[in-house]
Amino acid sequence: MPVYSDKVMDHFMSPRNVGEIDNADGVGEVGNPVCGDMMTFYIKVKDNHISDVKYKTFGCGAAIAVSSMVSEMAKGKTLEEAKKITPSLVAKELEGLPKNKYHCSNLGAEALGKAIDNYLKKQGEGSKKGGKK
Amino acid sequence: MRQVYLDYVATTPVLPKVLEAMLPYFKDAYGNAQSLHDWGDKAREAVGNARGKVADLIGGGAEEIIFTASGTESNNFAIKGLAMAQQAKGKHIVVSAIEHFSVLHSARTLEKWGFELTEVPVDKYGVVDPKDVAKKMRKDTVLVSIMHANNEVGTIQPIKEIANVVKKTGAIFHTDAVASAGSIPINVKELGVDALSLAANQFYGPKGVGALWLKKGVRIIPFLDGGVQEEGRRAGTENVPAIAGLSKAAELAKAEMAARAKRFSALRDKLITELPKRIEHVTVTGHPTQRLPGHASFCVEFIEGEAMLMLLNSQGIAVSSGSACTSRALKASHVLIAMGIPHEIAQGSLLFSFGLDNTEEDVDYVLETMPPIVDRLRQMSPLYAKFMKEKAKGGKK
């Protein structure tokens, strides 16, 4: 039995929205190479909506698939909606993740959340949602 | 699509001749080797012959071979059984930092049982310095275990020199030869060890069978209690078909060893020489010359091993990695870390191991397939992006 679901494999083999945004409105970076995964998310915000999202990921198959899925889930959403993307939602959309890879999915949502916080902070609204950093 | 298996270090296939040697013991000669009738005789004869063949492979005596169910079992048996048998003399054991988990974790279990454990470091090639072993030896050291060759980086240890150090102290010396037995010449007398582990599935025998060679006169606590099998040291009905397979595999390995090694090392050398030429920031891990013949291991910087492994698999190439993500424990290879390789580089570890089905075309296929895969993952990597930005600023690496 393969370790990953078809959906994970699809996103790993053809990741969506890979890249960087040069003049991003928000940037969020999580992880470190010691644990094996690093993600940087870049967002563009227009009228309180995520108009574009890109990322760079260092990590395993799951980490790449998670980044790709998070980018798809976030695109077009309002900031409030995007903040509601949780690791378990991402895993659900990916039709499950192996138990020992579950921490990778935490990173995707967290990185996006950090990018949104970064944007809000720049806007001088960082304290509103109680988001740290 | 081309199918290229380059993971012989994980396991080898069973050779047709080996399978043939096993089949009678499933079908006609199915007796229990302990039974006192003709059926038992046939099984007993097979087990007896196997003891001789396995002993021949490593230059030991037939009566010194104890059959086990795996290399892992042999290592558990040796570490726990030898230390426990010696505990009246002392409770200190010494192992290298790059041992297989079946040795390392057995040693840690002994710690829980009241033993003290000291790990010997390795150099950047993964070599244990006999002088370092000497420094770690104490009056109460009863057991030392240093692997013959490392399964992840292929480095072959100076076992003979280490044995000389250990012998002076009177401690028992075990070597895990699971990665090397059947691949390179081994003579237990020349090596000067007291115990040695091996496994059939590393040299074209079946899975689920291994052996522990134990020098005559060395005491060990039985691993499985029960009947009189293996002189009462490892009870349980003998796995006769598997033991017959191990026997045939050992015989073939001995006869073909030099020819196999010559072929494998040619493939290995081509990959080790060519891959770093085709891809920037790739380093060979392990010792440049003192390494297993079919073993080519690398670290590819800025990207992670499992992702490479999966993309290679999508192109029909099977390999291993020591990255955190490929390990269930999500920790980077303790071997690479012990060799002083930084975590982020160890994450990009990749291991190609050659075997009987491989040809030079397979190496060419890898050399062709790898660069676009590495490039694709690097384009996605924040570490590579950072590196390139710093490089563009004018600072050299």
Characterization of this structure:
The complex is a heterodimer of chains A (133) and B (397). By secondary structure, chain A is of the alpha+beta class. Chain A has one domain: Sufe protein. Chain: A. In chain A, 41% of the residues lie in helices and 20% in strands. Chain A contains 5 helices and 3 strands, in the order H-E-E-E-H-H-H-H. Chain A has helices spanning 6-13, 61-74, 79-83, 87-93, 102-122; strands at residues 26-32, 37-46, 49-58. Chain A has a 3-stranded antiparallel beta sheet with strand order 1-2-3. The longest helix of chain A has 21 residues, at 102-122. The radius of gyration of chain A is 14 Å and the shape is globular. The model of chain A has no long low-confidence stretch (mean pLDDT 90). Chain B is an alpha/beta fold. Chain B folds into 2 domains: 4-9 and 256-392, Aspartate Aminotransferase, domain 1 (Alpha-Beta Complex); 16-253, Type I PLP-dependent aspartate aminotransferase-like (Major domain) (Aspartate Aminotransferase, domain 2), CATH 3.40.640. Chain B contains 14 helices and 12 strands. Chain B has helices at residues 16-22, 24-27, 38-58, 71-86, 101-112, 130-136, 159-169, 188-191, 240-278, 305-314, 334-338, 343-346, 360-379, 382-392; strands spanning 4-5, 65-68, 92-96, 116-120, 141-145, 172-176, 195-199, 210-214, 282-284, 295-300, 317-318, 349-353. In chain B, strands 2-8-7-6-5-3-4 form a 7-stranded mixed beta sheet, sandwiched between helices. In chain B, strands 9-10-12 form a 3-stranded antiparallel beta sheet. Chain B has a two-stranded parallel sheet with strand order 1-11. In chain B, helix 7 links the parallel strand 5 and strand 6. In chain B, helix 6 packs parallel to helix 7 (159-169). Chain B is globular. Classes of the chains: A alpha+beta (133), B alpha/beta (397). Chain A binds chain B through residues 12-13, 15, 18, 20, 29, 33-40, 56-64, 100-101, 103-104, and chain B through 302-304, 306-307, 310, 314, 323-326, 328, 330, 332, 343-344, 347, 379-385.
